[in-house]
Amino acid sequence: MALPTTLLSKRLPLAEKLQIAMQHCRAKGLRRTHSLSTILEVMLKGERPIGWADLAENPRLRAACNPSSVFRILIRLEELGVVHRLAAARRSYYFALNVEGRTYDQIVCTSCVHVEILPRDHPLEDFAREVRARTQYRGVYHQLTFYGVCPQCQEKQNCPRIKMRADSQ
After folding, report:
1. All domains of the chain in start order, with CATH
2. Looking at the whole model, is its pTM more than 0.70?
């Protein structure tokens, strides 16, 4: 089941959002660990999908656990419906909190794997609300992903994202 919509409130302090998310995870049987808390906190701060490798590189997580542990926690959160896994190009994965009513429609560069979130004011959002209302389903979400080559890669001026990726390998 999705996280409550109260996590979308701009007025709610991060500490309270984290407490709500942790209570949700505890109700699903997860133990409160430093790694879980840090993953949720980073995802709540970012308010957008994050690559699992980028998450694993977070200094607080690097000190607490190895990258494979971060990935296992994310997979467990996905199994419990706390996060969505969003596919990107080249077998990389991005994760986003599964908050009722929030979607992450995206465009992915097939060259540098940059993910850009699309505005939420397109007709598909109206259709998604209609589907939820008509079917009375709970936890309804969709994922719309466009693929293409970003302007920086098109210009062939050594896209900085490709360089960053190459330097980290």
Report:
1. 5-168 (1.10.10.10)
2. yes
Helix (H) or strand (E) holding 13, with range, is: none
Q: Tell me what pLDDT residue 158 has.
A: 60
Residue by residue, DSSP assigns 68-119 as: HHHHHHHHHHHHTTSEEEEE-GGG-EEEEE-BTT----EEEETTT--EEEPP
The CB density around residue 83, as the number of other CB atoms within 10 Å, is 25
Torsion sign, CA atoms 44, 46, 49, 55: negative
Instruction: Name the nearest CA neighbour of 58 among 76, 79, 44.
Output: 44
| Cα(42)–Cα(109) distance, integer angstroms | 24
Candidates 164, 160, 101; CA nearest to 128 is: 101
Half-sphere exposure of 35 toward its Cβ, with a 13 Å CA cutoff?
A: 20
Residue 48, C-beta contacts closer than 8 angstroms, at least 6 positions apart: 96, 104, 117
Contacts of 4 (CB under 8 A, 6+ apart): 20, 24, 99, 100
**SS3 assignment, position 18:** helix
Q: Is 36 exposed, middle or buried (0-12, 13-18, 19+ CB in 10 A)?
A: buried
Q: Is the pLDDT of residue 156 over 80?
A: no
Strand, coil or helix: what is 39?
A: helix
For the segment 139-166, the average pLDDT, to the nearest whole number, is 73
